[in-house]
Design a protein that fits this description.
Chain lengths: 113, 116
């Protein structure tokens, strides 16, 4: 149980375009989901906390207009990277909370050319 | 405020020998502590967690960690390394954050290399 999926697993896009990443909790409902970014050989940095039915809470230094988060249902949160640039290339990982424990998705590798 | 320091960015061991990954934390609250493993281009897998019960915590794949409050440490050990243990390991502390339930703070990670 407690499986979190992400789609796509990897994506390549051109600079200036937008990319949407989906995070789904497959066998449980998650009122809270989290989005992390991980640069090569670095740790995970929390970008934002997504609460179902309300606006996301962004960490300091994360542009909310660039990284749009929508948590429309108890099993789905989406992260849209708008007007992507090469410096946005990273590994994006979501996690979903269930009963005070967080379960992580497999990650999405974004490459912006 | 909370923070996590993993004292070694890289650890190299021979297969069959013990593994020690060091982690120190600071937290204003009684924390929960976790160790996660990440294989290349994969998500995170929970190895074990401490949540104020027994101070010696046993996890999956033969790993265990000991919570020492006096030393603010939560070191991860395994008696005998296997080639499949080669991965990145993260020590994580969880403590209350206003308006968002518990918030996870990640250490910098320790990359484990296992030599045959």
């Amino acid at each position: 149980g407690a499986v979190v999926s992400q789609h796509p697993s990897w994506v390549i896009c051109k600079s200036g375009t937008s990319v949407k990443i989906e995070c789904r909790s497959l066998d449980f409902q998650a009122t809270t989901m989290f989005w992390y970014r991980q640069f090569p050989k670095q740790s995970l940095m929390l970008m934002a906390t997504s609460n179902e039915g309300s606006k996301a809470t962004y960490e300091q230094g994360v542009e909310k207009d660039k990284f749009l988060i929508n948590h429309a249902s108890l099993t789905l949160s989406t992260l849209t990277v708008t007007s992507a640039h090469p410096e946005d290339s990273s590994f994006y990982i979501c996690s979903a909370r269930s009963r005070n424990e967080q379960y992580f998705g497999p990650g999405t590798r974004l490459t912006v050319t | 405020a909370q923070s996590v320091t993993q004292l070694d960015s890289h650890v190299s061991v021979s297969e069959g020998t013990p593994v020690l990954l060091r982690c120190n934390y600071s937290s204003s609250y009684s924390p929960s502590l976790f160790w996660y493993v990440q294989h290349p281009n994969k998500g995170l897998q929970l190895l074990l967690k401490y949540t104020s019960a027994a101070t010696l915590v046993k996890g999956i794949n033969g790993f265990e960690a000991e919570f020492k409050k006096s030393e603010t440490s939560f070191h991860l050990t395994k008696p005998s390394a296997h080639m499949s243990d080669a991965a990145e390991y993260f020590c994580v502390v969880s403590a209350p954050a206003s308006g968002a339930g518990n918030k996870l703070t990640f250490g910098g990670g320790t990359r484990v290399l296992v030599k045959p």
